[in-house]
């Protein structure tokens, strides 16, 4: 099995000493009838084996679009990657011909989606949908592929995998369906797994089970995991680093503990303050006033300035704040990050 | 789980068959009543312009129970029908014999038309569903609009005139024992009756499925575009199309009445048309009874097929 994989996995220029995944200056725009929506405006990310990177932000901040751009499954048109590089072990995926790009998916970089019910094909049994990967990418026979599918369902702890292999997605519970999605994503042993809001559609108890399963599998396989979420509570336990996105930019990037203790960007700070907390029961919840900007008309300067308590004249004019180095492991795009970090965080 | 689903399916099947029996009796009763109400003097219609001798009239009246009250006549007729005796047409031919000639011709024509329309509609529907707003899509849209607005009573003679009489590509009429070649033009005309709707439904279905999340998953699985569309999208898109094709079989039977008339094909429609004109009650009711059965069976098959195509459907 590993031999076949090694053979198929060969990508021109693949350098095992290069970084697992590196996104640099990514730009994505959507050309719609009402104008050009600039969804991603220079995103930088990186990921190492065995690491969990959480991408955090409100709906429409570009976190899912970033994931789709990395996977190469943007709907084109209207979505276009207009700049930047996505390097996987040194290979720029954006420059690969489509046929090779296609082989990167599932083999090297895999993805799971928010709503497993709609993300799985309703008219095929789950076993068939997993086995399809082995048959298409590995040329396995139906029987062998089926055997591997059962193993995978066992791996993600679906009870009675052998009996359930012929069931259809609608016959599974929400949590079990997400496990099927995970099994499918892991089938070809990818090195990077992107999970786009994997637990948003699930009950809280099931959420924890799925997050634990993902963490466990990442550890066992030494995968890099990109976890996309809008829920700061979910990431605290599992993420190593957090990238906070706003209006298509990473506004703050930091190790998880630092960000919770001392956020360096007003947006991160506001997000933290908007988490309901038991010890503050009965008090007014701090919500972020206003809406995220319309991506066809992103305000000049720092895109967050209309909603920002720290905003001054310099924030309202171009150029937008550069990436300031808060310390060697963290960055923030705020002119007044020293002020933000110095402030008493979150609780007042 | 599986056993209970099969049992549900069986119960559903039995219930549908019983419903079908009721529908059958209801439909034949209505058709019989309509023919009865429509009857002026069927014997005179039979004789045409010539006067009918009194003794012949009497003999025929007795033979067809024309003096009995309506409900008795219906009773006589149904007794014959249920024992497999379709009776004798007013033209003095056994109706079962006429059916043996007519049905194979019409079935061939209808199946031919269904195949043509399904092949063209599914192909065109997929292509225009994928490239919405493209040249092909726009052209198809215009053609379907034209087809939708042309009734078959216009289309059939028009096609006959153009391709049969003027261009001589196809025979203008099909004749008594129509072969494959003779049936091409009538089948194409007949398929035009349903093809426009089928294209539209396929197109809408493909377009809708292309936007669904499972397509994104299929792409993320690294499947080639061909496989994403040919396997994942197609399998889902065809569910409503198959249903439509089943329902269309009924439309085609209705369309066959005109088409068979125009192209002189001695099928069911041809006989029905003549029967209605000559007030031939036994002939019309006999053919319609079989038509009703065909409808019922096709609808049942389509509904059962639906469950095979869409595993989410359960019968209760």
From TrEMBL, chain A:
Subcellular location: Cell membrane
Principal location listed in the UniProt entry: membrane
Transmembrane portions of the chain: none
GO molecular function, one term: ATP binding
ABC transporter domain residues: 21-272
SMART domains reported in the protein's UniProt record: AAA
Membrane topology: Peripheral membrane protein
Keywords of this entry: ATP-binding, Cell membrane, Membrane, Nucleotide-binding, Transport
Coiled-coil annotated residue ranges, if any: none
Family classification: Belongs to the ABC transporter superfamily.
Record's protein name: ABC transporter ATP-binding protein
């Amino acid at each position: 099995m590993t031999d076949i994989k090694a053979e198929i996995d060969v990508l021109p220029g693949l350098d095992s000493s290069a970084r697992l995944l590196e996104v640099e200056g990514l730009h994505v725009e959507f050309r719609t009838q009402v104008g050009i929506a600039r969804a991603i405006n220079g995103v930088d990310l990186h990921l190492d084996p065995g690491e969990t990177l959480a991408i955090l932000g409100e709906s429409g901040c570009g976190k899912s679009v970033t994931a789709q751009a990395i996977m190469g499954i943007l709907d084109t048109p209207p979505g276009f990657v207009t700049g930047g590089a996505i390097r996987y072990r040194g290979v720029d995926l954006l420059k690969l011909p489509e046929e090779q790009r296609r082989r990167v998916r599932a083999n090297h970089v895999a993805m799971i989606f928010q709503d497993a019910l709609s993300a799985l094909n309703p008219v095929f049994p789950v076993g068939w949908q997993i086995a399809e990967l082995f048959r298409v990418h590995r040329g396995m026979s139906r029987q062998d592929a089926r055997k591997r599918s059962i193993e995978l369902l066992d791996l993600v702890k679906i009870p009675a995998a052998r009996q359930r292999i012929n069931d259809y997605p609608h016959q599974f519970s929400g949590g079990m369906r997400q496990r099927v999605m995970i099994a499918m994503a892991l089938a070809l042993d990818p090195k990077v797994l992107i999970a786009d809001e994997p637990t948003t559609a699930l009950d809280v108890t099931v959420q924890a089970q799925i997050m634990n399963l993902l963490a466990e599998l990442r550890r066992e396989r030494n995968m890099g995991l990109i976890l996309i979420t809008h829920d700061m509570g979910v990431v605290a336990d599992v993420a190593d680093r957090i990238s906070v996105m706003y209006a298509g930019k990473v506004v703050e990037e930091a190790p998880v503990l630092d960000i919770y203790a001392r956020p360096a960007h007003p947006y991160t700070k506001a997000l933290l303050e908007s988490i309901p907390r038991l010890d503050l029961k009965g008090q007014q919840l701090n919500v972020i006033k206003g809406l995220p900007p319309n991506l066809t008309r992103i305000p000049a300067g720092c895109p967050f300035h209309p909603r920002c308590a720290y905003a001054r004249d310099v924030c309202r004019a171009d150029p937008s704040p550069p990436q300031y180095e808060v310390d060697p492991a963290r960055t923030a795009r705020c002119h007044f990050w020293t002020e933000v970090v110095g402030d008493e965080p979150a609780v007042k | 789980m599986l056993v209970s689903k099969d049992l549900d399916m069986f119960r559903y099947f039995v219930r549908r068959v019983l419903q079908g029996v009721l529908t059958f009796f209801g439909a034949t009763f209505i058709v019989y009543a309509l023919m009865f109400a429509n009857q002026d003097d069927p014997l005179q219609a039979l004789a045409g312009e010539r006067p009918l001798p009194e003794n012949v009239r009497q003999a025929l009246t007795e033979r067809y129970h024309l003096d009995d009250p309506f409900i008795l006549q219906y009773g006589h007729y149904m007794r014959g029908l249920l024992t497999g005796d379709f009776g004798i047409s007013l033209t003095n031919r056994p109706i079962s014999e006429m059916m043996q000639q007519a049905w194979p011709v019409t079935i061939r024509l209808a199946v031919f038309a269904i195949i043509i329309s399904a092949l063209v509609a599914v192909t065109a529907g997929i292509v225009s569903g994928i490239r919405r707003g493209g040249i092909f899509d726009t052209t198809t849209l215009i053609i379907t609009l034209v087809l939708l607005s042309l009734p078959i009573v216009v289309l059939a003679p028009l096609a006959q005139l153009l391709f049969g009489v003027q261009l001589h590509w196809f025979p203008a009429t099909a004749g008594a024992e129509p072969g494959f070649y003779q049936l091409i033009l009538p089948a194409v005309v007949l398929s035009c009756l349903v093809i426009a709707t089928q294209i539209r439904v396929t197109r809408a279905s493909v377009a809708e499925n292309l936007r669904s999340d499972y397509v994104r998953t299929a792409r993320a699985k690294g499947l080639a575009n061909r496989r994403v569309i040919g396997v994942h999208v197609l399998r889902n898109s065809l569910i409503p199309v198959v249903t439509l094709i089943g329902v269309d079989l009924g439309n085609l039977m209705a369309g066959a009445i005109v088409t068979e008339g125009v192209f002189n094909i001695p099928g069911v429609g041809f006989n029905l048309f003549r029967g209605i004109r000559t007030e031939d009650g036994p002939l019309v009711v006999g053919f319609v009874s079989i038509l009703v059965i065909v409808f019922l069976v096709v609808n049942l098959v389509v509904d059962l097929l639906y469950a095979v195509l869409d595993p989410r459907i359960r019968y209760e």
